Amino acid sequence: MEVAISAGGRLVAIAPLLFLFQLLPAFLQLPLVSGVDANDRDASTLLKLASENVKLGQYSEALENLNAAIDKKPEFSEAYQDRGHVLRQLCRFEESEKNYKRFLELKPGSSSVEKELSQLLQAQSAWDSASALYDSGDYSRALDHIEKVVLVFSPGCLKAKHLKVKLLLALKDYSSAISETGYILKEDDSDLEALLLRGRAYYYLADHEIAMRHYQKGLRLDPEHSELKKAYFGLKNLLKKTKSAEDNSERGKLRVSVEEYKAALAVDHNHLAHNVGLYLGLCKVLVKLGRGKDAISSCTEALEIDGELVEALVQRGEAKLLTEDWEGAVSDLKEASQKSPQDMNIREALMRAERSLKMSQRKDWYKILGISRTASIAEIKRAYKKLALQWHPDKNVDNREEAEAKFREIAAAYEVLGDEEKRVRYDRGEDVDEMGMGGGGAGFNPFGGGQPFTFHFEGGFPGGFGFNF
């Protein structure tokens, strides 16, 4: 029933007012009643927030909420369990163990927490093993252990992620290192260690421009970061020396270029992707300088890095020609030609090497007569006269077989070099072994077959002598 009273000539309903008055004591007493549970409710809310943080991988935020929850309620056992879990994720193993043990003090016999404590000990053991193996240089085994930390026990452990990337770099798995640092930088693009490591991965892939960007970004965040400064200025120095070596080679300053190439190679012996080009460039310059042995060494270094580098095979073939390793030159140039069959320059070089090999396998008539390749016809005749008299079988009764062989070579040499047309063909590398006496071949034996051999001195020796069969 609603009651109305008159107020200044107006009727006012009093039932709603009475209802509110009856509720007033309850509102006044509410803080006194709920005050006992306020900390519980706040700590629980913080625990829920921490749980959401963990799901999102926000371990630092989760730790802050858990610390606040425990500050509000020091006996909050669930908060100790969760904080132990978060600390394990961050590889803060000793602190994590203390929190798990504190939970077990508050709630002894919890099998789930005892299991987590066991996982913690496994995580710490895996981390210790990975660190020790990394220091000893056993990178493959170290990577196996750090994978357990990162993927199983402590996926939020930043130092484990950094170590994993270092191991990938040491194993020359640069693409994986780039992927791993990408995940890290997605969470925190100001991670200096990740910027440094990612820059190194690009550096060792010879993607120097991108490597430089990472170093520069890190140095903008921390201009005094020693490792970033070392990497940045080391790369600048390498690029400077490389360009100087190439520029001097183009200008024809070959000896200066050689020293610049060597200086560039000394910057970082492990930078294989870049050094392969330096070794090849050095080899080319050494070939131009005629330093065949050094050029072979440099091109071999390039081929050890990249066995499919056709240009290195070609240049090493040219270098072997300089050292008169004819068979080696043919082998390298033939392999290069097989890898690049359409390259006419390589085919021409191969033909030149094959011709040199063939010439090396025939008798050197100039050497047999003891004359130079520029000797005049008169010098050829004088040399022949002297040697023919020296090795005539009639004058070498005690060593007739040796003398006959020598005399046969001397006569064959004169047959080729004493004839202008044959000499020209011989100098060009043509096969003249089947001409005339056969260049001392199987068909030429002035002392064999039982036929008489006569020496004619006509008009002075040796201008008019002959062999009769």
Automatic annotation (TrEMBL):
Keywords for this protein: Endoplasmic reticulum, Repeat, Signal, TPR repeat
Transmembrane segments: none
All residue ranges annotated as the J domain in the record: 364-430
InterPro entries named in the record: DnaJ_domain, DnaJ_domain_CS, J_dom_sf, TPR-like_helical_dom_sf, TPR_rpt
GO cellular component: a single term: endoplasmic reticulum lumen
Subcellular location: Endoplasmic reticulum lumen
SMART domains per UniProt: DnaJ, TPR
Segment forming the signal sequence: 1-38
Keyword Oxidoreductase annotated: no
Location, primary (coarse class): endoplasmic reticulum
Swiss-Prot/TrEMBL TPR repeat ranges: 43-76, 77-110, 192-225
PANTHER family, A to Z: DNAJ HOMOLOG SUBFAMILY C MEMBER 7, DNAJ PROTEIN P58IPK HOMOLOG
Subunit structure: Interacts with BIP1.
Function: May play a role in protein folding in the endoplasmic reticulum.
Protein name: J domain-containing protein
Species this chain originates from: Spirodela intermedia (Intermediate duckweed)
